[in-house]
Amino acid sequence: MASKKPVIAPSQTAIHWLMVTLTIIAIPHFFYQPLWVALIFLLMMGWRVMHSWRGWLLPADKRLLKVLHSISAVLTIVLVFYSYGITIGRDAGVALLTTMAAFKIVEVKSLRDYYLSCFMGFFLVITHFFFNQSIPIVILMLLNVILLTSCLITANETDSSAKNRVKQASVMVLQATPLMLLLFVLFPRISGPIWGLPNDALDIPDSLPDSMTLGEVPPRNSAISGMSDDITIGNISQLTQSDAIAFRVKFENNQFPDRQNLYWRGPVLWHTDGKRWLPLNDNQKRLDKPLQIHVTGESTSYSITLEPHDRRWLFALDFPTTYPTTMQTQLTADGELNSREAIKQRVQYQLSSHNQYQFNPEMDGYLGYGLSLPDDRHPRSQRLARDLVEKSESSEAYIESVLDYFRQQNFSYSLTPPALRGDTIDQFLFETRQGFCEHYAASFTVLMRAAGIPARIVTGYQGGDINPVDQILTVRQRDAHAWTEVWLPNKGWIRIDPTSAVSSNRVDFGIGDLLPAERRSPRAIANNDRLVEMWQSAKNNWDALNSAWDMWVVSYGPERQLDLLKKLGMHQPDWQKMISWLALGIALIFSWIAWTTLRLKSVSQDKVQRIYQQFCAKLARLDIVRQPNEGPEDFALRAQQALPAYQQQIATISELYLHSRYRGDAVEEDFFDSVKQFKPHH
Amino acid sequence: MLMLRQYWQRWRQQQRYRVFILPSRYGMSYAMLILVMLLGAINYNNSLGHLLSFLLVGVGHVAMHHSYRNVRQLDYQLGHAEPAFCKQNILLPITFINQSQRPIRQLEMAYLASPSASSWWPFKKFSRYVAFYKAALIAADHNSLHLLPIPTQQRGWQELGRLRLSSVYPVGLLFSWFFIDINQRVLVYPKPIGNKPMPLPSAMETGVALQHQQGIDDFAGFHRYREGDARQHIAWKALARDGVLRTKQFSSPTGQSLMLQWQDVADLQDTEAKLSQLSQWILTADAAGLQYGLVMPNHTIDISHGEQHRHQCLQALALYGE
Question: Does the keyword Membrane apply (chain A) (predicted)?
Fold first, then answer.
């Protein structure tokens, strides 16, 4: 009997709450998703709004509408597949979830539908983190969870005010945070993936290109994109537009090398067709015999936290002499430090470098590659090289004369050079003469090779900003740089940065000084030094907070967890120990919440009682302390004797207290007022 | 240690009943949701995904405490149920007492519909409880009286066994409940129905006996509330004093007397129909302020009037054949 339960419909209030909540959750996705996702979402929400406002019919009310609704849902799914392809990756998944949540809202009829919609909302909240893991997004997450919890409360109870329900939800979420933190720290982390990642699981805003092309610089916001542009997008100048973080460096004992020595070594480029520069292929890079590295002077130890860039390069201060132990790495024949796997998540590694070194001083197997130039290209450059060689007595003198050529002719450093056509090197050297590191490194390398000096281009980063708050050096994409290495007998590969011959500021002060002022601080305050200073210090603090956040929260994984637990004093942490501590913590949190929710009446929240306690406190200040066994009347008598001047007031207050507390008379307000006015002193 | 023991004993004393708690259907889905989320977070190495999953674990945990508290803080005082007519509801007075500083919300009462048929499935019994009453709010530090309408089954004594008092408040993910064993039996009168005309009353021989009959003129005291009494005659002040529902009675000094006899309904085939017809006549006679008596096959009730008399007559009908 009565096993079939009647369908319980959620209240209109609850549905409205849920709609508002889902919209707030979905809005951040509209920025990443194509417009039609937002349109479909708002269309469905609009339908339900019109149902509440104007009584429009819902799919459940009419068969035709139901069919229409189902067909549009199916069409949307087809649209998702059409736009994103047949495999459901991150973006397609989010688009699907967002639109389906909206379709579901229109047909919410029973409590079951309602809960399903709420749960879809929780899934939408987690998808935010695939795009952004910053502090604001976590604050938004808390807000969203509070809203969703209040939706769940509203489904069960609509008697109290909306404010009250949100308050209840906030209390619950607040009480949930200790357990969240405990689990976050102690729950044994497993390193994923378990079943593989879709291709678009990573968001890589910018990264160093693996080749270099001189030539036309497309505008950054160019609407054209596709395979053919990939090469030209690999321009380092493009990266100067980007403030995205490449990696962060923490130096041991905060001992920073000089700015001029902050060359972060990355991919090395050898092959050229006159326009494009490419690295050696993987087979060529393989190390047959160990590199000959002779070092002098002190080493610098540091740890690097590298943002994911989906390539295998690891950056290191020129030149790394110890290699990371926490991951599998290898040094290539041309001095690139590579990881075995592509860097798909933020990694941290420790290493040390020597500033003074000799790299293969006796022999290098790749000198041939370091001399090759395309046939019949750069005729004017070749002629220039011949002229300068004739005037020079040695290789060193030749190098110096080329650098002098850059210094003395009217070369200038520019982040927005004129476009180059035809023979790019010749055009740059003899006509435009405006460019940035890429132009100088490439043309210098050509001039070296033309004179028979082996040379190669090293790309990477130069400089970085030290945040005075946490002493972390941050290297951003805009610090991308290219320089040259030449090989001289008995000296090996020597770093020469032709850009510094033209613009010593680039190396001495970093790229920051060369950027327009509004890139450094908002235009509105750029003229006020004090405001710029304040803005800078606020920015430093915010950056330091973000660094700590990225390192300790966002990249908290298996290694970080062991690291932290060791720091917290756990001896040889393993998952058994974590589970034991977790159990202990959960027991404590359980008891704490049980205590706060079931607490007996020991803390009186009764207002009359509270005000009376204020009255007692006022007397206690005059050393008239109410004893635990003393009734209000006895206490009043004693107080009256001690303070004859206030006899009348004390009597009134006690009388009013007894009346409002024990006889239920409506004299509370009088009682509150008289306690407020009671200001006894000796 | 001693203090802990004191707390424990104080705690035990409060435990008049045992509160149970289990995840509801939605709670199970919620757990699945968290599990899937956590797997996703692990797969994508997404640290903040972990954070959200753990926050939801925390919310579930807190919800458990809140749900438990909502039911735990409730105390109750059972009243005595008055007899009811068959097919009407027995009104069981219950006072909910909330001595805590927070309101208690969304209580649901259910009775066990069919107490038989045990099953090996542990919670099968749950589906046989039928929800019949909801109390949306018992304010902080307040008592409130509720009349629980329990359906009658058949005439005669009805055992009021076990009530289940539950709530899914606040988030509907958990179900907390406890049982109230009423241990009362309530008399169910036959349903007052029938279309036979009432036998004509005859004038009293003595002419002295009838002095006081129910009417609307002079206040003559209280009787306990029963279904059908005019609302404006309910003694609200008395209700506030002791929680018993009463009706004010008035008297008017006129009347005739009547003997309702088993033979009068002899032409009805069904025993229940006979009892129903007599039950209806009794109510009509009572409402009209007549003096009446009842002649049953096994015993006779003398002519009289008043609440006690009415009850006596209806009880005789209710228990006929037992």
Answer: yes
